[in-house]
Amino acid sequence: MNNKIAKFGAVFTFLIVSSNLFAQSSGSGSSNIVFYALLLIAALLILGAVAMIGDSMINIKAKELGIKDASENLSIFPTTQELFGQKAEGPAANKKVHFLKKGFDIKLEGEADYSVDENHKVTTFAVQPKNFIGMSPIPKVIVEEGQEVKAGDHIFFDKKNPDVIYAAPVSGEVVGIKRGEKRSISEIVILADKEIKYRKMESFDISNSSREELVTYMLDSGVWPHIRQRPYDIVADHKVVPKSIFISTFDTAPLAPDLDIVIAGREDEFQMGLDILNKLTIGKVHLGINARDNDPSPAYTGAEGVEIHYFHGPHPAGNVGVQIHHVDPINSGEKVWTLGVQDVCTIGALFLEGIYDAERVVVLAGAELSNPRYVTTFLGANLGDLVKDSIENDNVRIISGDVLSGKQKTVEGFLNFFDDQLTVIEEGNKYEAFGWLLPSSPRPSLSPTFLSNLIGTSYTANTNTHGEKRAFVVTGQYEQVLPMDIYPQHIMKSILINDFERMEGLGILELSEEDVALCEFACTSKQPLQELLREGLDLMRDQE
Q: Could you tell me the pTM of the whole model?
């Protein structure tokens, strides 16, 4: 700021001296006009300098008071976006909206009907230790095969972090403790009772208890693993006080569930969960709402004790990582916690009912399902039971999650811990001879060479990558679909050479796999960007 003031002083002095010299060498009439014109310009420069200094002082003071974040304009003058930018409609009208232009909406066939099947039968459920990043491959299992458990009973804990307890999502008999490579624990399977029984927790006095007592209660109940921590997207460290907590109330991924449907009937649980989260952070609880939705749930727009932010744009606008980046970016050494909407409800149910309620509304979507729909079930449901009598043919891929960042499964597998979506699409195992040369069927693509993109219709997609891994060239494709002030291709190359300082400096700590999933979809080089990013994040975490 001092340099700017010095430059202004030099310009002002130059203008005054120039006007005097010009006045001495010219006639009195014309010289006066020029003099006053230059004096007016100098006055405008003075006003600009005052505004600049005022803005700087306001920002400094706001930062000291902790009332400024990246979404606020505390300037004396409005921004160009505020004057000429897009305007939102509905509940977001006349409110601060983050308009994100970068990204891409992949429209697929197989969208679910807006109704919930509450009578869908699933017999087995599982908790999978590998769903939790950084966990010991062989956690300490507390139960045995044949043992009866209630929902909320302790079933295992991480040997690296024994305070965090993982609980049974349903009541029933433990019918399998399955092992994977190197005798790691892959699944703890429970045959569910027809009527779920719950371990009843003692009531907790929120108003007269400390934060430490609250954390201990949540750890014992089994709800703690539902809270994730950025950077690294790991289970939250209960010894850390986060600077803020973020919840995204909408999902823009292909065929993702409508979270307005998911929250219906659980509004009280959601608000109680938000109240509890407010007691866990020194900062704010931030709620991201879809500005493209003209009628979002009142549970979101009317939520109390939170700071609401509206986002308008294509996928990945609904990603919590994108929202963090635009509201309160993660700096070195800072921790931010994130949760899904149904995770917040699970926490709320604990304090309203005294139980660990792992009930989930899950969307079954995809063109290969005969009846795409929403179903009510519980966390970790068996996939075979979910898609029973619904798959059109055998040549399909079953995905826990969405097509961009989900995990391939079989009918013997189980829904992953943090997923509320099951997608079934055609397997792309057919070779296309001269596929790059001959006219092809309509398919989702960022390339303007596909005329079907102009129509904007939904597509029947398969898993064919239409090419193999090739030279990692600079294309600029990643930056076109990632609405963050980050250069993902440079980050990926720094991971390949294990340059830790460059990784951190380029912003790797703000990313998770779902944030670069669209970059991987757009990648001409067919690079496994999500896998590569996880390698980089694990390397960074190991250095701490």
A: 0.85
